[in-house]
Each structure stands twice: as C-alpha cells, then as structure tokens.
Design a protein that fits this description.
With 320 residues, the chain is mainly α. The protein has 16 helices and two strands. The protein has a two-stranded antiparallel ribbon. It is globular and about 60 Å long.
C-alpha cells in the first residue's frame, strides 16, 4: 500500500486532519528562532500522522469530533515526535523517512533539548483539556514511552530479552500511544464504556502488530521503502522477536556464536549471515504469524460497531 492509499483511508476525517495541522503547528510555536527552524523542519517532513488519524477515526466512529479531540490529536503527535527525536539521538540515526534527522542537522545536544521542549509543550496542552481522565491517560502514556526504550536497552545489555519481555517492551514504546489515541478519541465524544474498551483494544493490537512489522523490516526491508536504515537493531545489539525465536531454536554452541557476532558490531557480511540464520530457522515466519494474530485481534475488537466508511478505514489501517 502507498501513501495514496493512506490518504484514501483518511478521507472520512479530512476536515479534522486539516484542523489538526493548524493546532499542531500552533502548539509548537516559539519566540526562539532556532526552535522555530527545527519545528518547521519537523512539520515539513512526510509524517504519516497515524496517531492523530486514529484518534479522529475513533471519535468519528462514536460521535462528532470536537475541540477536545483536536487538542488531544495534537498532543499525541507531539509526544510521538518527541520520542522519535530522542530515539534518533540514542540510535545515532542520520535519516528518517529518507530525510536527515534533527540530530544529523543540529547535532545531539540541541536535539535532546528540542525533544524536552516538545514534551513540555505536550504537558502544557494537556492542562488545557480540563479533562482528568484524558490527562491521566496521556501522563501515563508519556511515562511508558520513555520507559519502553530504557527497558529495551536494559534487557539487551543484560542479555535478558525473552518473548514476554519483548511484548512488554513494544507495548511501552509503540502500542501504548496507538491505544491511547483511540481511547481518547472515544472519550472526547462521550462514547459508551464498551466502545471505549473496544477501541482501546483495537489500538493496542494494531500498535503491537505495527511494531512487530517494523522489527521484521529490519531483517527483510529495503531502506528506500522503509524510510529508515535497515539492520539498525542488529547493529545496535537490540534483540527483537525474529532473533528471540531463532536463538531458542539453535543449539548451545550455535547460540553462543550468534550472540558473539551480535555483540561485536557485525560487518555487512555478518549481518547478511545473521539474517540468513534467522530466515533458515523460522524466525521470520514465526514473527509474521504473531503479527497476524495481533492484526486479527484488532479486527475482532471492531465487531461491535456497525459497518461504515469510518470502520472501513480503521480496518484498512490494519492492512496498511
């Protein structure tokens, strides 16, 4: 699927996404010239803006999106952008979506401070909601997003990343913001409790599938299609599901050798060899099956809602 397909999926919320763009840009304004330069650069990049779209689609599924929906959509995108900026510093990434990262242009020190600035902006916007339930949910999500990255690094350093830890990690670093976006969209239009619960489940499962797919790309993607460097996790010794499954299939000597190669900043040839080992031992097939399980759970969560163009878009996003 292409970005054109994504535009079609967003058609039921075209007006809301236009309003969001105005709110998002307004929320990031600063009288400091360097901040203005950096935020304008971020706004100009080809972000898919999935999280605001999920929020508006969830709101539209249950009612009429409003001011609370719009402010909340801006907050979730600010949170997401702040985590990306910090992630790129941690991973020393020089490109994202085919464009130079903020830290590639303005270096790490300024990038970290910009991420902090954006987190502060999100907190300020949260207060304007005057909705305790939404404020509590967004605060919890902000904490989870930060802890997820640290948890991943800790488990990689201590060689403690197993399948249970992996699912906990991808919930915290990715899926929680998908789930929060959907839930707040429903809350903002006073949806029923069942609708709120189902949309939270939809967002959670969609987010889990999304991150698993992202981790699959590290082994099977092309940089021009993925929009970021592939094999990045392998180079950084970050153990994701394809490797977790593969390591469990290997004999003890094979496992020790593979872990040794991972720790020693593997060369391109070694990376290709690691990829071949993962494929040969079923790591990719197992990961694809898990992704499908989460995708199916996301579809099931929408069963209570009558058919509509909005529901069709939410289902379409699973395939996207």
């Amino acid at each position: 699927m292409t970005n054109r397909t994504l535009k079609l999926l967003f058609m039921p919320i075209e007006a809301e996404m236009r309003q969001f763009a105005i709110e998002f840009e307004s929320a990031l304004r600063s009288d400091i010239n360097l901040i203005e330069q950096m935020t304008r650069y971020i706004i100009s990049q080809r972000s898919k803006r999935l999280r605001p779209a999920l929020l508006f689609l969830s709101a539209r599924l249950c009612g009429e999106p409003n001011r609370i929906s719009n402010i909340s959509a801006s907050i979730v995108e600010i949170l997401h952008t702040a985590t990306l900026i910090h992630d790129d510093v941690v991973d020393d990434s020089i490109t994202r979506r085919g464009e130079p990262t903020v830290n590639a242009i303005w270096k790490n020190k300024v990038s970290v401070l910009l991420g902090d600035f954006m987190f502060s902006k999100s907190l300020r916007s949260m207060l304007s909601l005057h909705n305790f339930e939404a404020l509590e949910l967004l605060s919890e999500t902000s904490e989870l997003l930060s802890s997820g990255e640290i948890f991943q690094i800790e488990k990689s350093l201590t060689d403690g990343m197993d399948e249970v830890s992996y699912y906990r990690m991808i919930w915290a670093k990715t899926a929680c913001l998908f789930a929060t976006s959907c839930k707040i969209g429903a809350i903002s239009v006073n949806a029923t409790n069942e609708q709120v619960v189902r949309l939270f489940e939809y967002g959670k499962n969609l987010g889990m599938a999304f991150q698993i797919k992202d981790d699959l790309f590290d082994f099977s993607g092309e940089e021009r299609r993925v929009g970021k460097p592939v094999s990045r996790d392998i180079k950084a010794n970050l153990i994701t599901l394809p490797l977790i499954y593969t390591l469990n299939q290997l004999s003890e000597p094979e496992r020790i050798l593979l872990k040794k190669n991972l720790r020693e900043n593997p060369s391109p040839d070694e990376i290709r060899n690691i990829g071949a080992i993962v494929k040969r031992n079923g790591g990719l097939k197992y990961t694809q099956a898990k992704m499908r399980e989460y995708s199916d759970s996301a579809r099931t969560a929408l069963d209570i809602f009558p058919d509509s163009d909005v529901k069709e878009s939410l289902v379409g996003l699973i395939d996207f």
